[in-house]
Specification:
There is one protein chain. By secondary structure, this protein is an alpha/beta fold. It is about 50% helix and about 15% strand. It has 13 helices and 8 strands. A 4-stranded parallel β-sheet has the order 2-1-3-4, sandwiched between helices. Strands 6-5-7-8 form a 4-stranded parallel β-sheet, with helices on both faces. Strand 7, helix 11 and strand 8 form a beta-alpha-beta unit. The longest helix is centred in the first third of the chain and has 29 residues. The chain is elongated, with a radius of gyration of 26 Å.
Length: about 280
């Protein structure tokens, strides 16, 4: 048995030596010739934007690709969260935001990084969100969905706002207080009392139009439809005609804000006054 093992071991060593010799020969014969390489900025030379989504989010990615202009790269990561959207579940996801941000183009800088959840932004608070985003992507400009919305409303010159949401009453109360503390007067806020994010993504655009019209208020200078899970960008143009006032939605405002922070001033005529005029 010992002799057989020694013979086998010697045979293996000989085969390995032969393989090594063949490899050296191929390397010598097939060694790549030096080539002058020309680099450019790639497909995303204008800007790179990162979004931290909720784990179960189904709407935002499609909306961002739809609104993204040529030459801008958009990249996504997801933070853990339960499907039920409540104050407790939103608050619990704070630490995961920074961890998720760090996964966006590791070892490469982004121009802007955004936490893409309206309700989470108000429950956790912008300062904590920005700190987590900076932990993950320290060289990027930071924003959050509620930050984007408030900048959009300010750009439109509006302060008295009607707010339509899919949320539970407890989340609406925090969002109303948060915006009021930032100088906005919420003349009406109504929610659909939907508990699960996956159900929010299934609300039909027709329902959103009817609901938004019922929430609008004569004193409101603009209507805000809150939540990135809603398919609200599909109805902005039609709703602005019906209401005769600006309509701001979470995903529309988020892309507008991220582009402007990245120095991209492209306008479009299919997504409301915000993108047309500012």
């Amino acid at each position: 048995m010992i002799i057989a093992w020694e013979n086998n071991s010697m045979e293996m060593r000989e085969k390995f030596a032969d393989f090594a010799n063949q490899t050296r020969m191929l390397y010598t014969v097939n060694r790549s010739r030096p080539v002058k390489i020309e680099f450019d900025g790639g497909r995303h030379a204008r800007a790179k934007i990162g979004f931290v989504l909720l784990a179960m989010e189904q709407t935002i990615e499609g909306d961002m690709f739809r609104l993204c202009p040529p030459g801008v790269g958009i990249h996504f990561s997801r933070a853990p969260m339960a499907n039920r959207v409540s104050v407790a579940t939103l608050g619990a996801m704070a630490v995961g935001v920074g961890d998720a941000a760090a996964l966006l183009l590791p070892e490469e800088d982004l121009d802007v990084v955004c936490y893409a959840c309206t309700s989470g932004s108000v429950v956790i608070g912008e300062e904590r969100i920005f700190a987590e985003l900076r932990r993950g992507k320290p060289n990027a400009k930071t924003t959050s969905l509620i930050s984007s919305v408030m900048r959009a409303l300010e750009a439109l010159g509006t302060r008295r706002i009607a707010v339509a949401t899919p949320y539970l009453a407890e989340v609406n109360a925090i969002e109303q207080a948060y915006m009021k503390a930032r100088g906005f007067e919420i003349v009406n806020i109504q929610g659909l009392a939907i508990e699960h994010d996956t159900d929010m993504a299934r609300v039909t655009p027709r329902t959103l139009v009817e609901f938004a019209q019922s929430v609008d208020h004569p004193q409101a200078e603009a209507l805000f439809i809150s939540c990135g899970a809603l398919r609200s960008i599909d109805i902005i143009a039609d709703l602005e005609v019906k209401l005769g006032k600006p309509v701001v939605t979470s995903n529309q405002a988020m892309m507008w804000d991220c582009l402007r922070l990245a120095g991209i001033a492209d306008r479009r005529n299919d997504c409301g006054r915000l993108f047309m005029d500012h």
